[in-house]
Design goal:
The complex is a heterodimer. By secondary structure, chain A is an alpha/beta fold. Chain A contains twelve helices and 17 strands. Helices cover 29% and strands 23% of the residues of chain A. In chain A, the strands form four sheets. In chain A, strands 1, 2, 3, 4, 5, 15, 16 and 17 form an eight-stranded mixed beta sheet that branches. A four-stranded parallel beta sheet of chain A has the order 9-12-13-14. Chain A has a three-stranded parallel beta sheet with strand order 6-7-8. In chain A, helix 4 crosses helix 6 and helix 6 runs parallel beside helix 7. By secondary structure, chain B is α/β, with parallel strands linked by helices. In chain B, the strands form two sheets. A five-stranded parallel beta sheet of chain B has the order 7-6-5-8-9. Chain B has a four-stranded parallel beta sheet with strand order 2-1-3-4. The relative contact order of chain B is 0.16. The chains are: A alpha/beta, B alpha/beta. At the A-B interface, helix 3 and helix 4 of A face helix 9 of B.
Chain lengths: 425, 318
């Protein structure tokens, strides 16, 4: 593998919390040396930011079953162009990833189709039906990094407690979707005056807190390692902070969309803004940003959910939920940086370091010996997003025709270029 | 001779000397049986009723043979098909039965504590043949006799009890008995099949079979019931066998002369490898069945002696 020197860069080190001018040397797929100030030779980064590649938790790839929405090749290209070097994929496929055999198929497809690192999650219960646990031991042996039924919340607490107990015995991480299944059934938007005015069925923010409190009680009982996939409401935060303060093995995530958009963006029933959980109030959004800043929320993810035109061109209530995000996560995150809410090291702590740590992956760090999974980007470069240029097969972005700042210039995985601004390598 | 109990409801109420008394007498019955000697007629003139509120073939047969070898009049009542179905309460059933003056009542019931309740309402001696998840004293006694005969002692042994601890009355009785005899007990099984408070029982708890078996003298496997296999407590038979099924590779972590026990009936290929179960150098499963009859003879003999002594004192004719 090539020995490369990257000089004249702003090194964003999320672990040390620093943003310094310097250089970095890659050899054998790893970071071998780095330093402050100038250096001779190699590639001139022109003062752009060099950060550990994004570890995106909860990426939906439509394999198996929905390759017309997204395959590993297209998802990998979108990831590379967005500075994402590891995708932790979701098991809510058709069929669900609930046996070692399906997991092996997914791992093999990912390996054959994309140079981006793919680490799959597996279903917690068979067919994600909340009745019988999956073969957690065999699935871990096959490479599952966590277990989740996604938005199919397990309503039976006895089943869930047994799954958690069994998972704890194996040291497995469970990813929950904190949402009371009864209160949020059929919801399309968040509760509040705007939803009421439009006559849409809504999920009250309290349903999220109830779901979270329930899960945290079971975590306290079983001792399992637990990650809440997305927190989106201010009312849920005190419960999360309390659980962390009491020493439970708990972390939480938030999607980039819930940090940068709010319920008003739904406008006149724009289905590309229909998400799960729904976009919340501006107060909730600001509370999420603050929670990332103070570490109550650990991880920012794109919650990349490709949906084809047919599933979005429907009345709001009937339309599918979710938005693509692999390619737009970094420029969207730059909004928080430019607004002065979060620093670049804070952002990469939540997008790279924390997810790598939580899911037991080696990336996310800018230190000697870490894998050379890197992204070089210009945080100030302006552009208007044209969704037709997205590399995902599905173009369901809420940022279409939006002014954004922050462009990825180069992405490396294990020292190999997987994207450069001239196009995918 | 030291055995003061009126009933055999569990191991928990027994003094270590009482356990030794039963085992010594059982040992002599086992030897007599092997030598084809007559056993005497210790239960002559007594009526033994086997009341099984839960299906059983092996235990019921073992009690029946034990009673008949000692001359008792034995009667089996399949309670599942009887008055229970007609809505009679357990206490009413017990009172009705008591009116027929049975001397020995062998009872199995699916509810923990039900045999104790029944014992309060009858005048004969009651033997617990298994109550819910609570106790199965004759199983623990036959296991103890088998160990003592194979290992030459019943103290300071490392004994691993493996599998579904949570639902097992066999495990609970064995924990009482082996603990009273001062052995080191390890419980091995997936966390879903381990009572969360097990660590407070004075035992060691493992969810890794190899760690749990390290250096053991005795490996006791428990039966995993079919209804527990499919996703509710463990994901599947194959994952269970992979992690907790006893095979030669896992057994290699125990001592070279470790014995393998199983209360039966076995699920070959689920909790135990079929070849290992049949290995006469390691498996003592057949001997356990043999000792079962001897232990039940001894227990009923001792209870009958106490019953006769009590009736004599009270001036009741037997």
């Amino acid at each position: 593998m090539k020995d490369q020197l990257l000089r004249n860069a702003r090194l964003i080190d999320p672990e040390a919390g620093t943003d310094t001018r310097g250089w970095l040397r890659i050899a054998g797929g790893e970071i071998v040396e780095m330093g402050e100030g100038g250096a001779e030779g190699g590639m001139d980064c022109h003062g752009m930011c060099l950060a550990p590649g994004i570890v995106d938790v909860g990426v939906k790839v439509g394999e198996p079953g929905e390759r017309h929405k997204e395959g590993f090749r297209s998802a990998g290209r979108a990831a590379a162009a967005g500075g994402v070097t590891t995708m932790v994929t979701r098991p809510d496929t058709l069929t669900p990833i609930d046996t070692p055999e399906v997991l092996e198929f997914v791992t093999r497809r990912a390996h054959d189709r994309t140079p981006i690192r793919v680490r799959p999650m597996a279903a917690l219960t068979r067919a994600r039906e909340g009745r019988e646990m999956t073969e957690i031991g065999f699935l871990m042996d096959a490479g599952a990094v966590a277990f989740s039924d996604g938005d199919a919340v397990c309503a039976d607490t006895r089943v869930l407690s047994r799954c958690m107990t069994y998972a704890r015995g194996l040291g497995a991480l469970i990813v929950g979707h904190p949402q009371d299944p009864g209160l949020s059934r059929g919801a399309a938007v968040t509760g509040g005056k705007f939803a009421a005015l439009r006559g849409l069925p809504s999920a009250p923010p309290m349903a999220e807190r109830m779901g979270l409190e329930r899960d945290l009680a079971l975590v306290e009982m079983t001792g399992v390692a637990y990650h809440a996939d997305q927190i989106s409401t201010a009312v849920a935060l005190p419960a999360l902070a309390r659980a962390k303060a009491s020493g439970l093995n708990v972390t939480a995530g938030v999607s980039i969309h819930h940090l940068t958009l709010n319920e008003l963006d739904v406008g006149d029933f724009r289905t590309f803004f229909k998400l799960k959980p729904p976009l919340r109030s501006e107060e909730d959004r600001l509370a999420m940003v603050e929670a990332v800043g103070d570490g109550t929320i650990d991880i920012i993810c794109s919650m990349h959910t490709p949906q084809d035109e047919e599933s979005k061109r429907l009345p709001f209530e009937a339309a599918a939920s979710g938005a693509v995000g692999l390619e737009t996560m970094l420029p969207a995150a730059m909004r928080l940086y430019h607004a002065g809410h979060l620093s670049l090291p804070q952002l990469f702590r939540a997008m790279s370091l924390n997810p790598a740590r939580r899911f037991g992956l080696p990336g996310g760090r800018l230190v000697k010996g870490a894998p050379a999974d890197l992204v070089l980007f210009d945080p100030d470069a302006p552009f208007i997003l044209d969704r037709s240029t997205l590399r995902s097969k599905s173009k369901n972005t809420p940022f279409d025709l939006t002014r954004m700042e922050g462009r990825v210039h180069h992405t490396w995985v294990g020292g190999e270029t997987v994207f450069s601004e001239e196009g995918a390598a | 001779m030291s055995f003061r109990q009126q009933h055999l409801l569990g191991i928990a109420p027994l003094h270590p000397d009482e356990i030794r008394t039963i085992l010594d007498l059982a040992d002599s019955y086992a030897e007599a049986e092997r030598a084809d000697r007559a056993h005497g007629r210790a239960l002559e003139g007594l009526t033994q009723i086997n009341m099984f509120f839960e299906a059983s073939t092996r235990t019921q047969a073992s009690f029946e043979i034990a009673g008949k070898r000692l001359g008792a009049d034995v009667m089996n009542m399949a309670m599942q098909a009887s008055s229970i179905k007609k809505g009679e309460t357990l206490i009413d059933t017990a009172m009705t039965l008591n009116a027929m003056h049975p001397d020995l009542l062998v009872v199995r019931h699916p509810h923990s504590g039900a045999v104790d309740l029944l014992a309060q309402k009858v005048t004969g001696a009651v033997l617990n043949a298994g109550d819910g998840r609570h106790e199965h004293p004759t199983q623990a006694l036959l296991d103890a006799l088998t160990i003592r005969r194979k290992k030459g002692r019943l103290h300071r042994l490392n004994i691993a009890i493996c599998g579904d601890i949570a639902h097992s009355r066999v495990a609970r009785s064995n924990i009482h008995l082996l603990g009273k005899m001062e052995n080191r007990i390890r419980l091995v099984g997936p966390a879903t099949l381990m009572p969360s408070a097990a660590r407070e029982w004075g035992v060691e708890v493992y969810d890794d079979m190899r760690e749990g078996l390290e250096g053991c003298d005795v490996v006791m496997m428990l039966r995993l019931q079919r209804e527990r296999m499919d996703g509710a407590f463990i994901p599947s038979e194959r994952e269970y066998y992979h992690r907790f099924g006893l095979d030669a590779e896992k057994l290699a972590y125990a001592k070279d002369d470790a014995i393998v026990m199983h209360p039966g009936p076995m699920n070959r290929g689920v909790e135990i490898d079929g070849l290992l179960a049949d290995d006469i150098n390691r498996s003592v499963i057949q001997e356990q069945v043999e000792m079962g009859v001897a232990v039940r003879m001894a227990a009923m003999d001792l209870l009958a002696r106490n019953l006769r002594a009590l009736r004599k004192k009270e001036g009741v004719m037997v």
